[in-house]
Amino acid sequence: MLFHRKKKDYFGDKIETDCAYCRFGSDFDGAVVCKVGLDLEPDGSCRKFSYDPLKRKPFAPPPLREYDPDDFKL
Predict the structure, then answer these.
(1) DSSP per residue over 5-59, as a string?
(2) End-to-end CA, the chain
(3) Does any domain span residue 21?
(4) Which of 4, 17, 20, 70 has a CA-to-CA distance to 51 between 20 and 30 Å?
(5) Is the whole-model pTM more than 0.85?
(6) Within-domain flag for 7
(7) Could you list the residue range(s) of the whole structural domain that residue 41 is in?
(8) Alpha carbon of 47 to those of 18, 37, 58, 63: distances in Å?
(9) pLDDT by residue (tens digit) across 8-63?
(10) How many CB atoms lie within 10 A of CB 8?
(11) What local confidence, expressed as pLDDT, does residue 61 receive?
(12) What is the rounded (10 degree) CA torsion for 17, 29, 33, 14?
């Protein structure tokens, strides 16, 4: 008996469609252009969207807290 395993989605199933981090999106003079020549549908979907995690820019880390010399006294 064969069991079909569901493909594990490492990046979650709630990734919003954005050409900036699509496998087919390329940066051209500051604008993202689709290599396949498609545009986003009015509902925000694209039939060729393929998430590329290496294109996503990470959020900036929060600023470090300023410490006072009194914080280190016992």
Answers:
(1) PPPP-TT-S-PPP-GGGBTTEEEETTEEEESS-----TTS--TT--B-GGGPPPP
(2) 67
(3) yes
(4) 4
(5) no
(6) no
(7) 15-55
(8) 12, 12, 25, 39
(9) 566 776 778 888 888 888 887 877 888 888 777 777 778 888 888 888 888 899 99
(10) 5
(11) 92
(12) -10
Task: Take residue 49 and report the two structure tokens written for it.
Answer: 């969207």
Give the span between the Cα atoms of 59 and 16, in whole angstroms.
16
User: How many domains would you assign to the chain?
Assistant: 1
d(CA 19, CA 38): 10
Q: What per-residue confidence (pLDDT) applies to 36?
A: 84
Beta bridge partners of 34: 25
Residues 12 and 34: their CA atoms lie apart, in Å, by 23
Question: Given this model, what pLDDT does residue 2 score?
Answer: 52
pLDDT of residue 7: 53
